[in-house]
Amino acid sequence: MAGRTQLAPTFRDILDDSITKVAEVYWAPYNQNKKEFDVKVIELIYQNDLLHTRFNIKRTMLLEFSQYLERYLWPNFNPPTSNYPYVMSVAVMVNEKFREAVPAWDCFQDNPKQFGHFFEQVMKMLLDNRNVSLLERMILLIFLDHSFNSLEVDCIRDVVQQTLLLSSWISLHSSLLDEKLKGNEKLRKYWRGIQKKDKKLDDVELQKAQFFRTFLKNLIESFLQVLEEIPETGEISKDHVSYCERFMELMVDMLARLPTRRWFHLIMQSTHMIAHADLSALARRREGLLFNQLKEMVKFYDTFEVDDLKGTALTDRENNAIHYDRIHALQKEIFKRFPAEDHPELRRFAMSNVGNVDKPAALRNALQFMQEDDLIHLAVGLHLIPESVEEGEIDAVFTKEFLVHLLVNTYSRRPPKLDQFNSQPLYPTEDLLWDENIMNTEYYTGLQCLALPKLGIQFLTLHDYLVRNYNLFRLESTYEIRLEIEDQIARMKPWCGDDGACVFGGWARMCLPLQTFSIVEVARPLLGEVRPRSVRADIVIDVDLRREMRNEWEGLKKHDIIFLMTVRPKLPYGTPFDRSVNFLHQYGVEYVRGAEVEGYLDEEGRVIEDWIEKPHFVGNQRTLRVWLDTNQYHSDMTSTLQKGNEDVYKTFNMMFRRKPKENNFKAVLETIRDLMNTKCVVPSWIQNILLGYGDPAMAHYTRMENQKRTLDFRDTFLDWHHLRASFPDYKVEIEGGEDQRHQSLDPPYLLTFPPQKPETDDEAVTISVKSYTKPNRGPYPQSQPKTNSVPFTPTQIEAIRAGMQPGLSVIVGPPGTGKTDVAVQIISNIYHNFPEQRTVIVTHSNQALNQLFEKIMHLDIDERHLLRLGHGEEMLETEKDFSRYGRVNYVLQQRLALLKEVNRMQQSLGVKGDVSYTCETAGHFYLYQILSRWEKFEEEIKNFQEAVLEKKEEFSVAKIGNSFPFHVFFANAAQPLFKGEDWEEDLDIANGCWWHIKNIFEQLEEFRAFELLRTGLDRTRYLLVKEAKIIAMTCTHAALKRKELVELGFKFDNIIMEESAQILEIETFIPLLLQNPEDGFNRLKRWIMIGDHHQLPPVIKNQAFQKYSNMEQSLFTRFVRLGVPIIQLDMQGRARPTICELYNWRYEKLGNLPHTSTWPEFRKANAGLVWDYQLIDVGDFNGVGESEPSPYFYQNLAEAEYIVATFMYMRLVGYPAEKISILTTYNGQKHLIRDVIENRCANNPMIGRPAKVTTVDRFQGQQNDFILLSLVRTKTVGHIRDVRRLIVAMSRARLGLYIFGRIGLFQNCFELGPSLRLLTARPTNLMVAPEETYPPARPFGKAPKERPISIPGMSAMHKLVYKMYLEKIEAMEKDKDAMMKLIADPNEEFEDEEEVEDEDQENNEANVADVQADEVIQNEVEEPISKKERQPEAATEAAEQMDES
Q1: How many CB atoms lie within 10 A of CB 660?
Q2: Phi-psi region of 910 (alpha: psi -120 to 50; beta: other; left: phi over 0)
Q3: What is the three-state SS of 297-356?
Q4: d(Cα 705, Cα 725) in Å, to the nearest integer?
Q5: In 3-state terms, what secondary structure has residue 545?
Q6: Which of 793, 1311, 1364, 1275 is closest to 1094 using CA atoms?
Q7: Which contacts of 1307-1312 are long-range, i.e. CB under 8 A and separated by 24 or more positions?
Q8: For 564-580, how does the pLDDT look when each residue is reduced to its tens digit (9 = 90+)?
């Protein structure tokens, strides 16, 4: 817990605080007799709880948690009463909601008209430096930043954009404005229109308009005043520093989005803010480190290669042209103002070529010859400063230093952003790893800004998009590396020895001391580059370790990543370490460098590459050859040679390795860098939406020029009634039919949609339907097509239709709505409608991909066209191998089987020769022997039909059978082959037999390439590039293998992304570019994204990147925020309708499928449990609620014991263990529950283990009949306040959901309100009916026959379970005694012999039933254990954490 303080108020704090008491009187939702609104309450709270405490975070959190904004501030907001404390209070609450990552603008939607008045007051207070303190203005500045970043919200955008229009250029000085309008007729026209409108405004309206237009420039000038107040030396106000940092953050955000950048950029440049910041005292002080980092980000976007007005990326040629024009303007102005006789140096400058004068040093040297007045005249002539300065009308101070700096920065050549990017190293160094302004720790509070890029909803260009994602992905990987390095170094216990050398007092699994390190090769740079082409080094380590650890170290293979470190501790040997002390200083970490493994060296010094079996090593010394990062090596050597710094590569004394699966980061970063260095061609129909601009609906299929009017839906519809019901808003007509009232068609169907919507709403859209006959696939049952059996809903049908059409389809699938079935049907329909096209399937996890792939395997898709890439293929629940080599083996086996069929065909026809030797000979056989016979048969049937029509021959159905040439070949089919009863039926059979034969030879023709390719590698590549039609992979695999796929010439036409809302933005983007463009165009035709943004987002470990940079935002979620048309599936079939009510409020019109009320399991109540869902209030256990043995490792023993007792009760009632899962919101509680289960019941055959004990996050995408959920927290709400996590937790259960938590803590949480209201409407004690047994007999909704028992707490539940257990044992013993008595005296006489026989039979049946029950119980205990996914390392780490705590 060192280094972290408890920010959030605890439950006890909330209950006892004065704010809670005030809230109970004025705005608590449960108080029906609230007092009337009083603005003095707001003033008192602001003065006492906010301003007086300097906006203490706990006071702010208490107010926000009490729903101060939603219940009191905004509902009563009125401009006449909205004084200064009122406005500040609203701004503070909005900022707090953003800090806690909960919806902030929802309440403003109820009263949007008032937001304009409120925002105007915020603007005025921001500029009031007399009456509003700097701390308060900083709070308002943060609010302003949130507003500018929320332009997708209508009420925010309508107000904020008034400061971002062309009219804001009125704040420019006249010469600059004239210069910008002079070259653009369109802008001049708009400007004249603005002037005409202004003339029609009265004085008040014009004054208000001018205030909005000049606000941003006035805000910058206000910032410059604050910046000037900071002294060069001495004490410095923290408020001044924080305000300046927040202002630079605002500037970055304004420049990083086109809507805010377009007109503002020139305004910012006209104030010369960057030049002032460069020369400020803060920039030179130690306290200005973060300020300088943010300033560099402002500079990056200030010079970003984008056309502000058009919004298009500037090419290198355009950038050069702009630069040359700028330099020429400078030279012309100097030539005009400074005669040669007075300034010969300047004349030479004016006449020189651009390459000689556009460097900073050349510019500075030339400008140093000018006096301050000359520089002012030059700056005025270049429109950098207003003419009034030259004329003395403005009292502005422009020193020579400032003017020179301004001119040099404005006119010097700017290195291309791509060159700067390519020069960056891929591996993190010590400077980045421990820079708290960038690499913030996991305890990020959200109270300070950071020098990090943000993922908003819009980007400037594709380059900007890739750069931001690259930086954040690199930083997230760096954070994980930092945690591992700190852990391993701490385990190594480095101390300073008596001789000053580093001595290691401990050991670590992933870390070893180095014996030697040496650079062995530095290759010459490529032409035009300065960095070496490659740098190789040898590392010698000693692996005198335990066998398993030695095997791990010797298992390092090519492309694995290792880190080299220099540790120079200062602490004497044996000194205890203190976790609260700075890590770097305590452990003496000086250098960290990354490297990529090439391989171990053998005894002859050769690299051992790509070994399958582990090589034999001699001794304990191992030499490892590695590649160093060339950019980093060049930077280090430059620093050593030019600055005299220490040679880093002579100091390494430690080596750290990572697990192979954790080292994917380098391959992903290289992929992103490759994308930036190639012409990144995104489909034209999606590029603007990807960047966040243009019409969000422009990529919808209804707007696509190449949309298909007629679609073959194949087996999508079950029958005619299903088809009609699937289009409730359409008029469905049979093509060519007249009276259609009683007509119907049998599937499959061809549907033709109208080209455009009707002109009036009253006119129904007509769909033309045509049926067709499925082609006969021959006489063998195994050849018959598999058909769909899912009765898709109308919304699902619309999603399938959209997926079949070209364009972007975004499908939102709430829990249990069948989004996987929709995806599978889309894939099937695309496969059959467009057989020449190839489809890529991408998911976030192997589990989801395998679930989807297993359903695809059961479709009517030839399995030779299926391919599963990646290691997750091994987990597919099938004996077939769908990997690349597995598919090659299948093709080769299938080839042999088909050639055997060809041989059988040859024998049946009596053809001589070896025609079944290869696919080529089989092709000749088909062409000359098979096809000719079939054509002869067709001709004979045609002639016979003509002869019958001409009455030259008598009609005979047997003619088909008699003429059919392949009777012998089909002798193994069901006989008779032709029934001879119906001409059409027999002809269809003949066509089906021909389809079967033709399919054999078509497959052999496809397999012919596998005969020509001799190596397995070549065959797998051909399979990937040509043969496979449906290729499935995870997003991580796509990122890792993109370069390889592109080099192979991989092509695809469609991409389907499942779990899209859980995939990182960049990992969603990379799969779109797994192919090179054709003729400058991307051939992608369809992009189907399926997910649910209301459930959990991608996992980001670092909270700073998650909260501040919004890295958890998926591309799917961003599209939804942008307003891209979505199709939301609206019928769920997973849970009882009553359980669905706990989460359906989050979705628009989420209903229930009929089977949720009609299937037997839904019609019965849960045995032994009165309610189908309950929230059970759990008190402290021995005075203890939640505990935290280690940071964020939360546990709650009372809840753990209660949940396990409930599980035991359910097992005693008779519930199968595999139908029960236990979930929790924290890893610590998961481990605690598992421990309790192991101690209480795991080895008891009557109880056993549940199906799963895991976290809510891990269980997303899964379900079970009964869920027991532990909320854990008793002090603060915790991360269940994230509504997305709540939705996942509420939606995992089908039949029963039982939640254990502290009700008083959660019931006041605004975000959880809709669910909590339903949960708290039922008893908060668990209600049980122990007399009932499973399977249930009581109808759903009926009360138990006997009075239910209310369980007051955990102890009472344990007593009930103990009692029931004893009763069960006693009953079993009685049954056993009765059986033993029956066995001991089998010949006992009874008065009624027939009654004796009946009784014996009943006892025997009971005995068998008991034995069977024991077997079932034993199976139920053992089966989940065998199937349980164990993670030994994670469990060991958790156990170690618990032992340490």
Answers
A1: 13
A2: left
A3: HHHHHHCCCECCCCCCECCHHHHHHHHHHHHHHHHHHHHHHCCCCCCHHHHHHHHCCHHH
A4: 29
A5: coil
A6: 1311
A7: 1308/14, 1308/28, 1308/29, 1308/65, 1308/66, 1308/67, 1309/65, 1309/1277, 1309/1281, 1310/67, 1310/70, 1310/102, 1311/102, 1311/103, 1311/1281, 1311/1282, 1311/1283, 1311/1286, 1312/1277, 1312/1280, 1312/1281, 1312/1283, 1312/1286
A8: 999 999 999 888 888 77
Q: What is the pLDDT of residues 72-117, one digit of tens each?
A: 999 999 988 889 999 999 999 999 999 988 889 999 988 888 999 9
Residue-level pLDDT at 1437 = 39
> Which of 556-570, 845-859, 1151-1165, 1395-1409 is predicted least confidently?
1395-1409
Q: Which SS3 state, helix, strand or coil, does residue 257 take?
A: coil
Strands of 1054-1057's sheet in order across? 866-868, 1030-1034, 839-843, 1054-1057, 1086-1091, 807-812, 1126-1128
Pairing of strands 654-657, 511-522: antiparallel
Say how many C-beta atoms besides its own lie within 10 A of residue 48's C-beta. Answer: 13
Helix, strand, coil tally for the chain in percent (to 5):
50, 10, 35
Residue ranges of domains in the chain: 1-163, 316-414, 462-677, 891-1018, 1136-1367+1420-1427
Distances (CA, A) of 19 to 9, 1303, 1375: 12, 20, 64
400 CB neighbour count, 10 Å cutoff = 16
Q: Is 843 helix (H, G, I), strand (E, B) or coil?
A: strand
The Cα–Cα gap between 657 and 512 comes to 9
The neighbouring-strand residues paired with 1175 are 1299
Helices (H), 603-742: 630-643, 665-677, 687-691, 720-725
Q: Find residue 734's DSSP bridge partners.
A: 769
Other beta carbons within 10 Å of 365? 13
Please name every residue paired with 771 in a beta bridge, in sequence order, or none if there are none.
749
Helices (H) and strands (E) in the chain — how many of each?
57, 30
CB contact at 8 A, 387 and 173: yes
Do 608 and 599 contact (CB within 8 A), yes or no? yes
Phi then psi dihedrals of residue 531, to 5 deg: -80, 150
Measured on CA atoms in the order 962, 965, 968, 974, is the torsion positive or negative? negative
Distance of CA 292 to the CA centre of its chain: 32
Alpha-carbon distance of 168 to 184, in angstroms, equals 17
**In the chain, what's the furthest Cα-to-Cα distance?**
145
Q: Residue 1290: CB partners within 8 Å, gap ≥ 6?
A: 1139, 1142, 1143, 1297, 1315
Half-sphere exposure of 171 (CA within 13 A, CB side): 27
pLDDT at residue 717 is higher than 90:
yes
Q: 1308: closest CA among 20, 5, 4, 209?
A: 20
Q: How many whole angstroms separate alpha carbon 1156 and alpha carbon 644?
A: 76
Q: What is the pLDDT of residue 16?
A: 86
- DSSP for 708-752, written as a single string: -SEEEEETS-SSHHHHHHT-TTEEEEETT-S--SS---PSPEEEE
Segments in 1013-1081 forming alpha helices (H)? 1016-1022, 1035-1048, 1065-1069
State the pLDDT at residue 1436.
36
H-run or E-run covering 1258: helix 1256-1259
| CATH fit for domain 1136-1367+1420-1427, picks 3.20.20.450, 3.20.20.140, 3.40.50.300, 3.30.420.40 | 3.40.50.300
- Alpha-carbon distance 554 to 621, whole Å? 11
Phi–psi pair at 563, nearest 5 degrees: -125, 135
Alpha-carbon distance of 392 to 986, in angstroms, equals 105
- CA dist 936 and 798 (Å) reads 47
CA dihedral 341, 342, 344, 348 (to 10 degrees): -100
- Whether the per-residue pLDDT at 1438 is higher than 50: the answer is no
